[in-house]
Specification:
Elements lengths: L3 E3 L13 H7 L5 H16 L5 H8 L3 H12 L4 E6 L2 E5 L18 H10 L7 H14 L3 H15 L5 H13 L5 H24 L8 H13 L4 H11 L4 H13 L5 H25 L7 H14 L3 H13 L5 H13 L5 H25 L7 H12 L4 H10 L6 H14 L12 H10 L6 H11 L5
Parallel strand pairs: 1-3
Antiparallel strand pairs: 2-3
């Protein structure tokens, strides 16, 4: 389907009909390209020939920007409705009665203005419709001719003599909307524009953009410097970190820095380095988990940034990711749950994590020994470890616990029976077995403190042993 079609209120016909109202009322308002584009669009909508907007502009030998500009010109008179700009879709309406005629003034009133204006464009003739719109602005907005000429000259300096007059009108309206209508106010503003345009041009070159600064770019520069408070040095530093990018990406980056209250080059450098570190760390974690996410920002913002802020370093996070991988649960959410469990127990440093895993491994091995004593075959789970911790909190040594397990051999729900035995002993103040020392756990802890040298093989072996064990 072509980008150009009729609205429902336009009756389709086999020929291209041009309403007389268009010829009498609207044609004098427009330049040649606007008329050419409107009539060609009527024909295209009539015969339904397949064209993209870009192909249509090439067919008419006009720039794509000129095509859009002309459609916007006709839209203000309700002849055209722009439904979307990406991709471009327009509807052609019935030609309405023109409510506002071209503005007419006595020729002598602005004779000096017209002469000066035409002198600014030696390569083309100013159309009556263009003069008419300038006259209307001066009459209705009370802006002086010399002030208007100042703006027009600025546009020529910025875009060249081929600048479209609709662009000039947009700049003029921007000044009017900001209540800048006197020669002095416009001159002062334009002096800033010229200065900032030069600065913006340097920024555009650094971004790898081959175009000159436009009024919207200058507005962005004002926002960065006046509203946000960035210095030119900081802006240029931010540009260097982005390398090649569009101006809107730079604007988004500076807005991001502003929201974080980071203004100096040193602060920006640290922020960028941290972002890069978090990105690289996230990629390593995902590789260890054997998962892939095309967009990393949500994972970084939701998980990785919080883990790092809690004090977990790369070594700790990759160790825990490897634990999750070997446990068969390979997702970031599960890793986050394990980190929360550790953090709530104050286990953050790599040394404390290793110590915790060693403790888990020791408890599991001891529980397997107890299972053998009571005559059951199972894998230790959290409930078993909680029971063991409870018995020890009651003051029972391992030898006493093993003795209770011996008495529970062959019983139904053996560990529940161990609970009953130990509870009975506790009530009777029975806590020792002759000739069995009670300091083995403290000696084990002391031995761990004196042995801090481990190999990667040891880490891998420890994870393999703990894999599948819920923390």
């Amino acid at each position: 389907m072509s980008f150009c079609s009729f609205s429902q209120n336009y009756k389709k016909k086999s020929v291209t009909n041009i309403d007389n109202s268009f010829i009498y009322d609207y044609l004098p308002l427009a330049d040649g390209n606007a008329v050419k584009i409107y009539i060609a669009s009527l024909t295209l909508a009539t015969n339904g020939k397949e064209y993209t907007a870009e192909d249509f502009a090439e067919f008419l030998k006009v720039d794509y920007e000129e095509l859009i500009s002309c459609y916007k010109f006709w839209e203000q008179y309700d002849l055209i409705k722009i439904v979307s700009t990406s991709p471009l879709k327009i509807l052609i309406n019935e030609v309405p009665l023109l409510n506002v005629k071209p503005y007419k003034v006595e020729p002598e009133k602005y004779s000096d203005f017209t002469s000066s204006l035409q002198a600014l464009f030696p390569q083309r003739m100013i159309s009556i419709s263009e003069y008419s719109q300038y006259f209307q602005i001066m009459e209705t907005k009370k802006i002086k001719p010399e002030a208007l000429l100042l703006i027009i000259k600025y546009c020529i300096d910025l875009k060249g003599e081929s600048v479209n007059y609709r662009y000039i009108l947009a700049v003029i309206n921007d000044f009017i909307n900001r209540d800048l209508t006197t020669f002095k106010a416009i001159e002062s503003e334009l002096s800033d524009y010229v200065l900032n345009s030069n600065r913006i041009n340097e920024i555009l070159i650094s971004l790898g953009l081959k175009r000159k600064a436009e009024i919207e770019d200058v507005k962005l520069f004002d926002k960065w410097t006046k509203d946000y408070g960035f210095t030119l040095e900081s802006i240029n530093f931010a540009v260097k970190t982005l390398k090649k990018a569009k101006i809107d990406k730079l604007d988004a980056f500076l807005s991001e820095l502003y929201s974080c209250k980071l203004f100096s080059c040193e602060e920006i450098k640290s922020y960028v380095e941290r972002k890069e570190y978090l990105k690289e760390l996230t990629l390593k974690i995902n590789k260890t988990l054997s998962v892939y996410y095309e967009v990393l920002e949500p994972e970084i913002d939701t998980y990785v940034k919080n883990w790092v802020n809690k004090g977990y370093n790369e070594q700790s996070l990759l160790f825990l990711a490897q634990y999750c991988f070997k446990s068969g649960i390979r997702n970031v959410n599960y890793l986050d749950e394990q980190i929360k469990l550790l953090y709530n127990q104050g286990i953050v440093s790599f040394e404390s994590i290793i110590k915790y895993f060693e403790q888990l491994n020791a408890e599991n091995e001891y529980l397997l020994k107890l299972f053998k004593i009571v005559g059951i075959n199972k894998i230790p789970v959290k409930w078993d470890r909680d029971n063991l911790a409870t018995w020890k909190s009651w003051g029972f040594s391992e030898s006493m616990i093993e003795k209770a397990c011996e008495l529970s051999y062959g019983k139904t729900s053996a560990f529940s029976y161990v609970n009953s035995v130990l509870s009975d002993w506790k009530s009777k103040n029975i806590f020792t077995v002759d000739k069995i020392p009670t300091s083995s756990q403290s000696k084990s802890s002391a031995r761990f403190e004196n042995e801090r040298e481990y190999t990667q093989e040891y880490y891998d072996s420890l994870i393999t042993k703990i894999a599948g064990t819920k923390l």
